[in-house]
Amino acid sequence: MPSTENRDLSRSDKGVETFIALMADTPNSRELVFLPLGGAGEIGMNLNCYGYGPPDERSWIVIDCGVMFGRETTTPGVDIMMPDVRFLEENREGLLGLVLTHGHEDHLGAVAHLWPRLRCPVYATPFTARLLRDKLEEAGLDGEVKLKVVPLSGKLTLGPFALELISITHSIPEPNAIAIRTPLGTIVHTGDWKIDPAPQLGEVTDDAALRKLGDEGVLACVCDSTNALVSGESGSEAEVKTALHRLIGGLSGRVAVTAFASNVARLDSVASAARAHGREIALVGRAMRRMVEAAQDCGYLRNFPRVWSEEDAVRLPSERVLYLCTGSQGEPRAALARIAAGEHPYVSLGEGDSVIFSSRIIPGNELAIFELQNQLAARGVAVITERDHFVHVSGHPARDELASMYAWVKPKLAVPVHGELRHMSEHARLALELQVPDAIVAVNGQMVRLAPGKPSIVDEAPAGRLHLDGDVLVHEDDGLARARRALSYAGFIGITLVLDRKGRVATDPVLHFEGVPDQIIEPVRDAVSRSLNGRRGGEDLSEQVRIAARRAANEIWGKKPIVRVETVEI
Ligand SMILES: [Zn+2]
Ligand SMILES: [Zn+2]
Predict the structure, then answer these.
(1) In what order do the strands lie in the sheet with 472-475?
(2) Which of 143, 269, 357, 543 is least surrounded by CB atoms within 10 angstroms?
(3) From the CA of 106, which ligand is nearest?
(4) pTM for the complete prediction?
(5) Rounded alpha-carbon distances, angstroms, from residue 136 to 78, 140, 330
(6) 106 CA to middle of ligand 1, Å?
(7) How far is ligand 2, taken at its centre, from the CA of residue 479, in Å?
């Protein structure tokens, strides 16, 4: 019967339509994904993205936007590096906001550089916002960026993401974990953290809030891996304070302490030890003065003693002064480097004086720090580090602390971040040992589908590093660092060939040598002349000359410099 047929047909059409409509609407067509673009595979330049929605129209939030420092050996001439955010630029219409967990450079240092590419609102707690505002002002962006201050333990909703800040402890004021509630489950993004029962400044870890989340059910915990290879616990700032009191009490002569300026609790501990032993505090280095000012603006360091300027402190007897200095990582332009080199206009240290390094060595800075310590030792200064005294604790969770976090949060999935691959892999292994049912190690650019279904890596986004080279941002793939490494290894030879209109060699070639030993100059000249004998021009000739020059250099020197050949026609 035709009518039935029609009815059936229309019903089945309708069925398909309904099915499609349902699919588009059902939560199942929506996914919750995690995408690290920085900090997953290296310690530094953290940038983590969370996406929700159907694959082609996701909403995104970004947590943190940091830098890492360049290394003279691998990226000569590059001071800082930051994540390539091409993916976010391409998905900017879905980008709802950037939320900062805390004020360390590896979490907020890239905002002023990358915000013009992201152009989304930025959220931070008061102290972090204060630090960021300074940077935005310097970059001339303060009028443009919508920077919204969120109170401690505050909440905010960005599209499908309901965020709640949770106070934790770390090594800077106002560190936060973030609970991210979505229609497909809750994520706990820990940020940088440790468990310090006596942090000396700010809140203790809000374990009640974390336990509560665990009881509600947590889909994934995206967690700090820095110290996943370290057993036990990181230790408390209170213990460092006690140790500093004892140590400083036993020192005569001038005392200088170097620490990260952002470790405001540590600055306070040093100041209190100084005061207890009759020493006045002088802040040396711009970052130190700015950080104390920022902390006081935000209501911290209420009992910090009156600070002496570098100039005025010169008048104090050596037993009555303590210098708090920048430069614990051997930074060449920082206060301590200038003091060690005897180039500081007001502070000089020598026989009978002491320098306490109340900090750890950031991997990659070993040589610079040892060089600095040698310079101090050469002046007769006693150098005290965490190797011989208890003058530092880490701000990151060791294995026992990770165990506590997993016991509180009880996630279905562990996603290690903030580490090199060796830290992240070991962290994943530990999480599984701690009965977390699943763990995924994803490096920068790997997109993890957290829900629905079994979590897995489902896609790859462009990722990489941008180098701040002078004042210009360049992509690492542009090869600048590679070329500069090659130049620094074996120098440069420029050769200009002068040809007449018929392509014959018209005059002697002009050679220019940079950064090569004298011994190769004549042999290279000879080799170039020989390769030109009776030859005509053309691309082939340039290449022959280039090869001849490199070969001649290599025969004598054992190294092949960069050789560029240009031809000029007259
Ligand atoms: Zn940090
Ligand atoms: Zn960090």
Answers:
(1) 68-69, 78-83, 465-469, 472-475
(2) 143
(3) 2
(4) 0.89
(5) 21, 6, 26
(6) 7
(7) 27
